[in-house]
Amino acid sequence: MQAGPREIVTPFRPIPLDVPEGMKPNEFFNSTENLNDLVHNNGLLQNPEGLLLYRKALGHSNEFDASIIYNTSQSILDPLGRPVRRTQVPEAVKNVWNRMNQIIIDYMLELYPDPDRHLVLAGEASLDATWPLTSPGVPSIRMLHNHFIAFDKAQLRDAPIADADNPNLTDGGQHSLFQAHMRDVYRAFFDELDLQILRPCQAGSCKIALTGYPQGLPSWEVQGGVAALKEVRFWKEYDALLKGFIDFYRTFFSQVSTRNAPLPRDIYFPELVEAKLQFDNDFLKTAKMVRDRCIRDAKYANSIRWQPAFKQLIYRNDAGKLIVTISQNSIGNAITELLGVVVKRTPDADAYSAAEPALIEKLLEVRRRLVEADLGEGIATPHWGAE
User: Fold this and answer.
1) Sheet strands side by side (includes 43-46)
2) Which of 161, 174, 324, 332 is the most exposed place for a label (fewest CB within 10 A)?
């Protein structure tokens, strides 16, 4: 069978919401008003920390699809002041969030034990408005959320090969920038992080054979499998990868913006950045190349994301190992594309209704486990009760 990214069709029930005149749909869907609807129609569980577990109404998969959002829509009205990545979440909230992640991932692996039958993933994407403010669809409201998704591999095998030039798969050229010019620098930088549970994958061992993804990204095997997710150490290392990525990204684009720029403020690993980046000729040569192109190519300069944008996820590979990976300036809207799955959502209430009972049964069971672990209280909606 030919390996390659797959494009699947996922039906959804049209959402009966009127978008106010003058607003783009994504702006409204991230608004406080819409989040109220999300709670009342799709909410499963919430807790005093502000974490909301909900069914994805516009989902990636009708096999299993849920999200946790850090709902700060009413407590932080300034959208640019809201947490949009793990490193910005208060420790008490992150502790609860990590435990929720661990329980949901454990349940998914129990529910889908065979890596040949199901692709299982969980992760988050940066919601920063880091691309040009004049671009269509730039989110005006930002809130951190993550995804828990399972795909039936039989459906993926039967799906057509996706367009390899899809910008969400190619990373808009930024991915190739890292891989073509700074691959060794990037990986050497990560090799200096203090990781004990996460071990670098051997080349090619972490790919999903069906799709051939992820492509070129540094990945790490979780030593100890799902049991390791119960350890605080794992989540500290998971955070360290994100912090390392942010330091690398900010340092690089600081040099692109300003020749011989000083260390960015508030970086996490200043000694590592100084030793491995600010004195590396390949790193600085690449920054000069991008800077020179920005000066002469207005369209290219306008496409640059000057602040870190990323997707970070935990997924199960073909051998049944848990893998952690992080993207490089992803521009896509769906975290699934990191694993070569392009989702085409289509409105089809009848098709969604056929899949809905089994999906809701699974989501209510994972909610029961979270309530049992004192991680929140159930929400009643027109579709299910609070218990």
Assistant:
1) 198-200, 219-222, 322-326, 311-316, 118-125, 145-152, 64-70, 51-55, 43-46, 377-378
2) 161
